[in-house]
Amino acid sequence: METGKAFPDVENCRSEGREKDAVVVDMDGTLLVGRSSFPYFALVAFEVGGILRLLLVLLLAPLAGLLYYFVSESAGIQVLIFATFAGMRVSSIESVARAVLPKFYSADLHPETWRVFSSCGKRCVLTANPRIMVEAFLKEFLGADLVLGTEISSYAGRATGFVTSPGVLVGRNKAGALKAAFGEAVPEIGIGDRHTDFAFMKMCKEGFIVRPKPEVKAVTADKLPKPIIFHDGRLVHKLTPFMALLTVLWIPLGFVLACLRIAAGSLLPMPMVYYAFWALGVRVTVKGTPPPPVKKSSGKSGVLFICSHRTLLDPIFLSTALGRPIPAVTYSVSRLSEIISPIKTVRLSRDRATDAAMIKKLLEEGDLAICPEGTTCREPFLLRFSSLFAELTDELVPVAMVNRMSMFHGTTARGWKGMDPFYFFMNPSPSYEVTFLNKLPRELTCGAGKPSHDVANYIQRVLAATLSYECTAFTRKDKYRALAGNDGSVVEKKPSQAMGC
To answer: Which of 247, 346, 371, 463 has the greatest number of C-beta atoms within 10 Å?
Structure first.
């Protein structure tokens, strides 16, 4: 067996003046630091098939490993493909590949391979992974021109679990795919990390190898060509075999714990919820000084709390921090979330005049919470603020919301919103930090003649500075187009089918 000593290390590859050169790289262990594709198969299994599919992949992983080392790389990968994809809708796999996997792939980018790959004018990736899993990330976020991967077979819109000819793209199959794609042209650079890559590396003018080095750290997020602002999926961390086992074992226990936490928040008086959450492992940190409640007899407008939007639980934790229930305006929250909510929720219609009249009426009754981003964002960015709120009252108090989750995200763009609070509370020790900022001075409000969009933009900047976040002009529509392939508009449905924001 060849050892790869004939190929110099990728660190020796010159990246200057490569604008007209073509580069061909392998993926696992080459373009990515990690050499195993198990975490990404496990992510697809869980996000599409749930806990039982993840358990199946986990149980068959040892068999895949034995076949990989004692039979062939191809046989091991075929087992993972079958366990992960058999019976899944192809459209669901494509959705996860577009909305979930890029976040995890981008956190594992090899610095030296990326240095060379990004410097070349034509970029090709050859991989044993199913093309359907990797193409969206490679083309949209890394600028790959061509992705050659294993092709999965399908029938009636569902994956069969098998692969099409010529089979898993390893060894000679990689070389054959490269020959078919480039014809008589010879790529300038070929980069791989194992002996099954040598066949295609020899076809290139220069070949380089990526040797496994534990000290190699992935490319940091600030050096990526395109920031990943929107991403979906329930899992916070990449699923190594140990994390996959831990997740499978924790979910039943976590669901029971989530039910207890939700019951405490829904059934106890609001002044007691703060202490009940702490007793059940939910950490709530309050900073700043909130204004006292407005007396209805005074005839004054209630305070409108302007919250950054992290999950649909933002108004509930705002109420927990204040020790009193604060009604919130929402857009199409699931019926289940409305039923179990300890605070009053009022749906926006997305008709400006109707919503303005409704919010004014609610403010006449007391304080109110609103999230003008219109949808959640997981990353340290603030989406564009709708300016409607600024036209309705001058009693504006910005509130910076930050949450931390160790296992599950409490938001989704593709799944059922009714499970959002359960997934948040299924985390072993979720936390919320609520920071009350000073009430907006009157001279900065619409009452003093400021345009509503200037007021909204100012509050966005103040909250971003407090959170060390970045302001963006992205909207709800941008998020849903990126993650779900629609603009986020929701048609009224039956209660069991209602989607949330």
So the answer is: 371
